Each structure stands twice: as C-alpha cells, then as structure tokens.
Amino acid sequence: MPPQFFGREIQVITGGEVKSPTAFTLDKSQYTIAEIVREWHDHSFGPTATGRRKRWWERRHRNYYLVKTTDGELFEIYYDRGANLKHPELRKWYAHRKL
Known about the structure:
The protein is an all-beta fold and 99 residues long. It has one domain (4-98). The protein has strands at 4-15, 20-26, 29-42, 62-69, 74-80, 92-98. The termini are close together. The mean pLDDT is 83.
C-alpha cells in the first residue's frame, strides 16, 4: 500500500523526561504510540529561502518521529518548533504521512 500523505495539524500528548509523543489525534481518531521507531531533526532551508544567501530564520526547525501505534500502524509525525522563541503558539505538531 502506498503511503498516505496528510500534512495536517494534530493534537499530541507527550510524556517522559524529554517530552516524546505518546499519543495523537488525527481525524477524530485517537492513536496510542507503542514505539518510537526512529527520530531525527530537520534544520534544512525551506522553499522560502531563495537566492544565494541563506538566513538562519529561513531554516526549518522540526523534530520528526516515525512511530508505531498499538494497532501496528506506522506514522511519520513532526513537531515544528518554529524559528521564533518568543512565540510558542507557532510550535505545532503535524501528521506527515502514514506508511
């Protein structure tokens, strides 16, 4: 089955000392995370970084997680930390795709 792409904001419950995701809600369905299979950071420049000179605020600040739910489904979710530390309301969770 090909991956399903979402790109939608989700509600996430975090836990533990480092605030890792433990559950999330997507399309009114609640998913419990059984395992974080992999995690990585994305600090690349997004599509708004044009020209030869790249500026730090044009970087992405995302924490990606490949998670396995208790139902055995695999999802790629990420936490977009934003570039502005003064505006925590810009920090949001997204469901990227279901594998």
